[in-house]
Recover the amino acids of this structure.
């Protein structure tokens, strides 16, 4: 009989059972789910990506009653003007803004609640400044779990509101160093048998694989050469890579796309060393950036992640605050209202083509990770008020604009 799926640290040193509460090995190395016999898995018939690729997930069957309709998001060809702007004639957008709570985090939350419900857990928890907290609150409530969300001081009220409306128990952590608080909360939670998930957790990563499965289907014969995405805790990038790797091992795709990792220049602990070909995290602290979903200044397991990136010849690029805001406008012209963190990819691609690191004939899929609905209006520096008109003024205006 085949061995059951289990967790292993990515340096191969330690193993844990699949249901473990641990997110890191005793040496702080991230964990990954190993699915024995992955090479023999096959795609099935099914309505959703979860059903078609059911054999590739470590829990089977997945309970679709816990789904809010995450995944199976649109894959769109970039407009001619966007192609000209970036220099890429084969550019596509994977629009993750249409997920149930408006970001790709829903793919990971769906998988996390599967495990909690299966194990008969009554509670779940996360530490988040925004999208993950919102997502876990929605999925936790739907699954009948009490959901605790630990947030740092200063989290804007527009992000707390949906967490509260989904009846999450929101707790503000006293203290200033969010990375330290995270580690403390994870240790405390484990001691109390509470499953607290962060952006790098091995179970979330299983959910993120579903995006690669969709890309393999949606791109038809033209699998992208590159997948561009903004990166913070690294869970998303690791999940996307793992999804492709498993499809490759099962013979469904014949090559694995390379990743393009994008960060704000003000906080680029991974993108900057990668750009320079270095394998050590460059910690950032005391910064502010409009890319507020990308604020991990010193990602745990970052060195191991950089080695993975270098081994696979992934590309890194950074963008300025001005480029981030202009990226939001350019995506809006495509009909996609993106979160500032997601819009970082637009200028990153243009710059990579310009400096010759990215071939203009490459097929690139840029993941638009989250919706602009959660953008802080202040990042646009105040919007001009639309003009007011009475009917007479309106008539003059319309006559002036006709022809
Ligand atoms: C969480 C998040 C990211 C970063 O993903 P990581 O897994 O932390 O690297 C990027 N964009 C948006 C919109 C996010 O919410």
């Amino acid at each position: 009989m085949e061995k059951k799926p289990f967790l292993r640290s990515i340096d191969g040193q330690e193993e844990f059972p699949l249901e473990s509460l641990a997110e890191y090995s005793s040496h702080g190395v991230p964990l990954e789910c190993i699915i024995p016999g992955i090479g023999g898995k096959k795609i099935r018939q099914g309505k959703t990506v979860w059903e078609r690729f059911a054999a590739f997930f470590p829990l089977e069957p997945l309970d679709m009653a816990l789904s809010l309709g995450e995944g199976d998001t649109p894959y769109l060809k970039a407009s001619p003007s966007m192609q000209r702007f970036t220099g890429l004639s084969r550019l596509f957008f994977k629009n993750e803004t249409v997920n149930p709570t408006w970001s790709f985090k829903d793919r990971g939350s769906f998988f996390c609640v599967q495990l909690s419900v299966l194990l008969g857990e009554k509670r779940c928890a996360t530490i988040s400044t925004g999208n993950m907290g919102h997502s876990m609150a929605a999925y936790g409530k739907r699954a009948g779990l009490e959901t605790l969300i630990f947030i740092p001081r200063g989290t804007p009220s527009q992000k707390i509101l949906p967490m509260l409306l989904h009846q999450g128990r929101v707790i503000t952590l006293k203290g200033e160093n969010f990375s330290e608080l995270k580690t403390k909360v994870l240790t405390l939670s484990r001691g109390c048998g509470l499953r607290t998930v962060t952006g790098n957790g091995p179970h979330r990563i299983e959910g993120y694989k579903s995006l690669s499965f969709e890309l393999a289907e949606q791109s038809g014969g033209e699998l992208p050469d590159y997948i561009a995405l903004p990166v913070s805790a690294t869970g998303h990038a690791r999940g996307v890579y793992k999804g492709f790797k498993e499809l490759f091992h099962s013979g469904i795709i014949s090559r694995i796309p390379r990743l393009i990792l994008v960060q704000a220049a003000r906080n680029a602990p991974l993108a900057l060393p990668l750009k320079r070909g270095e394998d050590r995290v460059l910690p950032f602290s005391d910064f502010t950036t409009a890319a507020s979903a990308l604020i991990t200044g010193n990602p745990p397991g970052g060195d191991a992640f950089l080695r993975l990136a270098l081994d696979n010849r992934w590309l890194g690029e950074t963008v300025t605050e001005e480029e981030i805001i202009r990226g939001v406008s350019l995506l809006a012209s495509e009909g996609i209202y993106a979160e500032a963190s997601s819009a970082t990819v637009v200028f990153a691609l243009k710059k990579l083509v310009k400096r010759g690191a990215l071939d203009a004939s490459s097929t690139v899929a840029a993941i638009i990770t989250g919706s602009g609905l959660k953008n802080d209006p202040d990042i646009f520096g105040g919007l001009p008020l639309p003009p007011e008109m009475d009917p007479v003024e309106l008539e003059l205006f319309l006559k002036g604009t006709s022809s």
Observations:
- The first helix runs from residue 49 to 52.
- The longest strand covers residues 146-152.
- The chain has a mean pLDDT of 94.
